[in-house]
Amino acid sequence: MKIFENGRPSPDHPAGRPAGRPAAVDLRGAALYPGYLGADEQGALVDDLRGVVAAAPLFAPVTPWGRPMSVRMTSAGRYGWVTDRRGYRYADRHPDGGDWPPIPDSVLAIWRDLVGTDRLPDCCLVNFYADGARMGLHQDRDETDFSWPVLSVSLGDDARFRIGGTERGGKTASTWLHSGDVLILGGAARLAYHGIDRIAPGSSTLLPKGGRINLTLRVVD
Ligand SMILES: O=C(O)CCC(=O)C(=O)O
Ligand SMILES: [Mn+2]
Question: Fold for domain 25-218?
């Protein structure tokens, strides 16, 4: 069943009407669920992510052109997304050689709720934004099947999210993502250019030392 029709979640799909949750707002074809996760759910996710980071430590990625990225990252799942001089890719091991830990059930529950149970994500990319970190406009296009959406979860400090169309250099729109917001890039927006301009330090108390965590769930192959 299609998740999106005309750029909006289909009313026949769970993503169109999550039970007892806020409805989606259309953000240039992406579906934004403001305040999707309550405070307790956000706290439980952070606890589970501590376990992920203990098993697969955050690392400092470098672009294929040798530029350090300002976020630190790790992954959970069958694959992790990595970048270094060899390029952007999914890898079945952490750069240190260890296994990626499983995706916590608290994270998978969000996917089940909004995308369904036909297929679960293979990768949960974890990005950590300290003060000053950002992410340039890019497409998520290292996956095999773009009919599966990318589901993104924001935790901690607010972030200025920018989204354009499927061509580089087109018009963009931006909005603040807050802790607990969930965003789905699917349908016509699956290959939309998007990025994070900046975070707002101190805007959330969820993470004791501040900063922002973003999770993106992806079906890889
Ligand atoms: O931090 C975000 O909200 C977006 C992250 C992102 O686009 C990515 O990891 O590909
Ligand atoms: Mn992305």
Answer: Jelly Rolls (2.60.120)
Task: Tell me the CA–centroid distance for residue 71 and ligand 1, in Å.
Answer: 10
Per-residue pLDDT reduced to its tens digit, 139-161:
999 999 999 999 999 999 999 99
Give the domain ranges of the chain.
Answer: 25-218
What does 63-117 look like in DSSP terms, one character per residue? Answer: -TTSPBPSSEEEEEES-EEEEETTEEEEESS-TTSPPPPPPPHHHHHHHHHHT-S
Band (pLDDT 50/70/90 cuts) for residue 200 is very high
Ligand 2: centre distance to CA 138 (Å)? 6
Mutating to test ligand 1, I would choose from 27, 36, 129, 152 the residue with most ligand atoms within 8 A of its C-beta, which is: 152
CB 211 within 8 A of CB 154: no
